[in-house]
Amino acid sequence: MKTTPAALPEAEILKPEEIKSLYDKGEIDLVCVLGPTASGKTRYAVELAREIGAEIISADSRQVYRGMDIGTGKDLEEYGEVPYHLIDILPAGEQYNVFDFQRDFHKAYEDIVSRGRIPLLCGGTGLYISAVTRGYKWEGEKIPLSSAAQSVNPDKAETEESGTSPEAGSLKCFFIGTLVSREERNRKIDKRLEARLQEGMIEEIQALLDSGVSAERLISYGLEYKFVTEYLLGERSREEMQERLAIAIHQFAKRQMTWFRGMERSGVKIHWVNPL
Questions:
Q1: pTM score of the predicted model
Q2: Which fold is adopted by the domain 183-249?
Q3: Contact 51/16 with Cβ under 8 angstroms?
């Protein structure tokens, strides 16, 4: 039985000068552009950063790795002259988790603010976004590793079950979400996947294997790195790899939207916009 897609939130028209004014008056101390994959959030964030004098802090659990460019969709040419942070900070094969991200985020945040610029967080890793904007403190050994599969429920992210507790250091954040219908999002995902395969994503992942990054570690990074590695190991045909990967990315984007709507249910205000 086919389910009816949830209705999209109402789109707003935001004025960059008003967002900057909120920051200048101290009413907010961070801007965050979030959205599911293929929703146009990076392009929107870059244009907004130009308008308000911001620098972008990436909230993407896999773009931290060097050499993982096509598969993670870094698209660094989109940034132009806009400075960015927390991209290409680790060699592929390393582990990186939300605790590491919190530490690195605060370093980048303080650096940006100290130079009189506005910090703009941009990404789709909901766990990372919630952790730094709501000031999570991770207890014991319950720190999730980075992966394309976010396993913590945002509605329960401050419970003992997830190993977190809120800190006093929560940021006054102005959240902007990029809207796209499920049908359009899936169409863009499929088109982008085909383009990335043509651009050399398989060769990129083969080069990582050749450089000594283990297949197990690449598979742990999820999505493109999981399915293409399995293809290179002879566990899937190319056709099956592309078909199953597209479905997995569709499902991942749906989980991202579930996360962001969960943020709203927990009291976070997200200003939804139609991206440029």
A1: 0.90
A2: Helix Hairpins (1.10.287)
A3: yes
